[in-house]
What we know:
Elements: E1 2-10, E2 15-23, E3 27-37, E4 44-49, E5 54-58, H1 65-79, E6 83-92, E7 103-104, H2 107-114, H3 124-137, E8 142-147, H4 166-170, H5 180-193, H6 195-198, E9 201-207, E10 211-217, E11 220-224, H7 245-253, H8 259-268, H9 271-276, H10 282-288, H11 291-315, E12 320-324, H12 325-330, H13 332-340, H14 351-356, E13 369-372, H15 377-388
Parallel strand pairs: 1-6, 6-8, 9-12, 12-13
Antiparallel strand pairs: 1-2, 2-3, 3-4, 4-5, 7-8, 9-10, 10-11
Helix pairs in contact: 1-3, 5-15, 10-11, 11-13
Bound molecules: adenosine-5'-diphosphate.
Keywords: ATP-binding, Cytoplasm, Kinase, Magnesium, Metal-binding, Nucleotide-binding, Transferase
GO molecular function: acetate kinase activity; ATP binding; magnesium ion binding
Subunit structure: Homodimer.
Amino acid sequence: MTDHVLALNAGSSSLKFALYELVEDNRPSMRWRGQIERLGDAPRLLAQSAGGRSINEPLTDTKTHDEAIRAFLKMARENLPDIHVRAIGHRVVHGGAVFSEPVRIDDSVLDTLNGFIPFAPLHQPYSLAGIRAASAAFPGTTQVACFDTAFHRTHPWVNDTFALPQRFYEKGVRRYGFHGLSYDYISQKLQDIAPGLYEGRVVIAHLGNGASMCAVSGGRAVASTMGFSALDGLPMGTRSGQLDPGVVLYMMQQDGMTAEEIADTLYRKSGLLGLSGISSDMRTLLAADTPDARKAIEYYVFRIRRELGALSAALEGIDALVFTGGIGENSAAIRQMVCDGMRWIGIEMDKSRNADGGTVLSTDLSRVRILAIPTNEEMIIARAAARLA
Ligand code: ADP
């Protein structure tokens, strides 16, 4: 029996997973990774092994989100008889102000995490559903929670608070920041490949369906574009990004929208989708070449540049800009547009390096180094699970 850890990332419509064998010094080495997509609808299991095998099949006889996750975990247990799962690590969206590190899950931790549902009502319940399903399928196995908020617990207080009456802060209304597992991975990767930059002032742009940016100094988070919820900051696939709170008051008072309608608009109908009227998917917009698609891209790029300026101010300078996430890793066009407007701050993209898609994208003379690094949130979860097993 070989020791393994399983990393789970349960979302509203998908469960991403990765299975790692623990090799020398408990280092996780990836064996399988994949996802169940269309949870609660027509779930399908897609997976690839490190050895090149692949699975693409429907998960029949499951109706609900929970049933599909349970069916997958049962299948994993039955089909991998030669492995011993030492720990299961979970991506948990919200760790509040309490958790700044991954933690072994017990009843009291679960109670605390339940208490954070009001902070992330659209996301936290899915994290908890993944934990419940994994505890039922693998009873007695160590479960570890890894938080999207944890990496940001080092923000100085000015980046942790809003200028509201103090009682809101006491209740937990703070600038938490998200995508922390991705920032943690990129930061650790920088320490390996460019220790000098790791020690410096780095802005990381995580540009996926969800998107945010984080200012990191010497490996510690200083500020993020996301605050209390996963709505703030950059426009995203379907989320609005930064919004004057007066707009929400207008929606309620003048448009007569309910809280649910406003949440639906801000989370599911805004961002790239809302502006373009076509799609939330950047590839589709880049290919569409319609005036509204171009406007959506222009707004997206403009907000990234604005935040880059703001985060550089929070760091009192910038030594490196790192792109990651589906758009940041793959779209040379978006990276080029962002950097074209940032020469004033010392950012100079090398066009052909950018088009070739290597790791270093800046010119040799650029004062700020530009990098593209694929993120790997599951690896951060697996390392934590291995450590705490
Ligand atoms: P998630 O946040 O769901 O993990 P991803 O990090 O996979 O999302 O990012 C998805 C986004 O990345 C989509 O908007 C997709 O169009 C975009 N994307 C992926 N590849 C490319 C590409 N080659 N060019 C432009 N955009 C891309």
